[in-house]
């Protein structure tokens, strides 16, 4: 038997952690390994496979197409390995659930989930595209986010609940728009909320300008509190200390579809999903049966 062609379980786990963290250094910290040791593991498995699993970029280590397939199959190997160990009565440490949440939903999550319920959950905030990508590539287990047609197509077989989310304009109490001036928008690059605001204004022929642009939702909220512009929030989320902007010249915003998804082959249990569904998808939600776990 050629042992060089066997895939070591510990290296499979290491590759999965590198994919999850996006960095060899962060993965080494989580695995309690030195960076040289982890790099050696990665070099070994790539030598066995004869191809690269990651591409190094300015933003970290990104999976290649082969790497994505490796992680997908690697999770199955880990799950099978752990099931075999349980046959002998071994009690294994439960792996944390990785929960991807659109930044606008972060406060809502802490309302519906206690610290105890989150004791074995890793929460990753991000925009909708990042969360959908995490689900499809396997480093996010459960995702709550807003869907465009493209994103919905990517995760169509992972959706367990969905609803229409109504959005409203929000501003500081002291915000005043000068007559005839373009509306100052507080923007989030690449975010679906941006498209929502811009489309509504453009359809009504209303001029606007980008007054603030940041992917950081807290920074965008701070800019709104400073009174330099307006932005949009889900209607049911309390925007305090901001207020809903009801000025006559602001057009109504179209709703976005919100999704609750579970990655394939992941056993999410019921408590976490029920809590998320009740808080984020209670009114107007439609549960989809037949999700493939």
What is the element layout, followed by pairings?
Elements: H1 9-21, H2 24-31, H3 35-49, E1 54-57, E2 60-63, H4 65-87, E3 97-102, H5 106-112, E4 121-126, H6 128-137, E5 142-147, H7 149-154, E6 159-165, E7 167-171, E8 183-187, H8 192-203, E9 208-213, H9 217-225, E10 231-234, E11 243-244, E12 256-262, H10 271-280, E13 286-287
Parallel strand pairs: 3-4, 3-5, 8-9
Antiparallel strand pairs: 1-2, 5-12, 6-12, 6-13, 7-10, 7-11
Helix pairs in contact: 1-2, 1-3, 1-4, 2-3, 5-10
What does this structure look like?
- With 293 residues, the protein is an alpha/beta fold.
- 39% of the residues lie in helices and 22% in strands.
- The chain has helices at residues 9-21, 24-31, 35-49, 65-87, 106-112, 128-137, 149-154, 192-203, 217-225, 271-280, and strands at residues 54-57, 60-63, 97-102, 121-126, 142-147, 159-165, 167-171, 183-187, 208-213, 231-234, 243-244, 256-262, 286-287.
- A hairpin with a 2-residue loop joins strand 1 (54-57) and strand 2.
- Helix 1 packs across helix 3.
- The longest helix is centred in the first third of the chain and has 23 residues, at 65-87.
- Mean pLDDT is 84; it is low at 289-293.
Helix content: 25-40%
Query: What's the alpha carbon Rg, rounded to whole Å?
Result: 22 Å
Largest sheet features: 6 strands, mixed
What is the count of DSSP helices, taking H or I runs of 4+ residues? Answer: 10
Enumerate the spans where pLDDT stays under 50 for 5 or more consecutive residues.
Answer: 289-293
Order of helices and strands: HHHEEHEHEHEHEEEHEHEEEHE
